[in-house]
Amino acid sequence: MDNKENLRPQGFYYPDSGVFLYGHHYLAFQKSGLNTIGHPVDNNVWEKLRDELHRVSEEDVILSSEEFSSIQGRDQIYSLGRELKGYSVEVYVYLRRQDEYLQSVYNQQTKDWASPQCLDSQSFIDAHLANNVFLNYTSWLKLWAEVFGKDKVHVFSYDDACLAKEGVVGHFSHELGLEQLVSPVHPNVNQSVSAKALELIRLSKVMKFPDGKREQLFNLALRAFPNFDGGAFSSSQREKIIDQYRAVNDGLCAEYGISFREVDVELCRCGSPLELSDMMIILDECLMKS
């Protein structure tokens, strides 16, 4: 969205139809049937997109949303293909190593006091490893390739792009031959928080605190434990995740030439566990606030 006006002089159009916040989430949700944002999706959003595109002169169009990854089933992906029939489609996919992806999801869903996620890290991992089609990247990429053509599906490492000087936005613009694109002014960053703050908000859900009290406790926890002290997943938990998808990722490398970095034990240390003394720190924060 921040580059909408930068794109037009270069012959690319970023549509308004289906946009929520920073991407075309509504277009994705209309196909996946998911809507974690909590806003109703217009069932005619794809028709409105096509009407909008008929009114503009640019030949190249960019649709972007991380929620397109929620379109996974065969029927959903083929339905998406029918919506885009008549257009030449190039699919650009940025994938995270599965343990990095799961930890990001765990962090976001657990720290969100309105989210029902209150599983501990091991239970969360076990649940996703038992039933998570998305983490089998080659499986659903095959469906996208069936619909749009394998040569039209371009796959990259999200982490490699983030670590590069240009970042994901720069990497994507380079792939399209674009210039003068800027990184988002207000990027939607799911900032990781300390393991202790994360565990406190998780326990508040287990105890069925109302949303308002969960939010208050989380804000107290952020003040008491502001520094990120390592992820919620231990290196052994990460290795378990990677072991389950090692064959999948080998196939991904063979098919698309993409490989993920090995686990760095030093960078992937687990945060300190919550202890009774930490509760006293929270109590002190609460007393100072009152």
Tags for this entry?
single chain; 290 residues; mainly alpha; 14 helices
The poorly predicted ranges are: none
Rounded mean pLDDT is 86
- Spatial ordering of strands, largest sheet: 1-2
- Classify the helix fraction into a percent range: 40-55%
Structural class: mainly alpha
Oligomer: single chain
Tell me the Rg in angstroms.
Answer: 21 Å
Tally the helices: what do you get? 14
Give the number of DSSP strands. 4
Distance between the termini: 42 Å
How would you characterize the largest beta sheet? 2 strands, parallel
Hey, roughly how much beta strand do the residues contain? under 5%
Shape: globular
Q: What string, H for helix and E for strand, traces the elements in order?
A: HEHHEHEHHHEHHHHHHH
Describe the 3D structure.
The radius of gyration is 21 Å and the shape is globular. It is built from 14 helices and 4 strands. The two termini are 42 Å apart. Helix content is 50%, strand content 5%. The protein has helices at residues 4-7, 25-32, 45-54, 74-83, 98-111, 121-130, 137-148, 158-163, 167-176, 195-206, 211-224, 235-244, 246-256, 276-289, and strands spanning 12-13, 60-61, 91-95, 153-157. It has a two-stranded parallel ribbon with strand order 1-2. The protein is mainly alpha-helical and 290 residues long.
Which SSEs are present, and which pair or pack?
Layout (H helix, E strand, L loop, with lengths): L3 H4 L4 E2 L11 H8 L12 H10 L5 E2 L12 H10 L7 E5 L2 H14 L9 H10 L6 H12 L4 E5 H6 L3 H10 L18 H12 L4 H14 L10 H10 L1 H11 L19 H14 L1
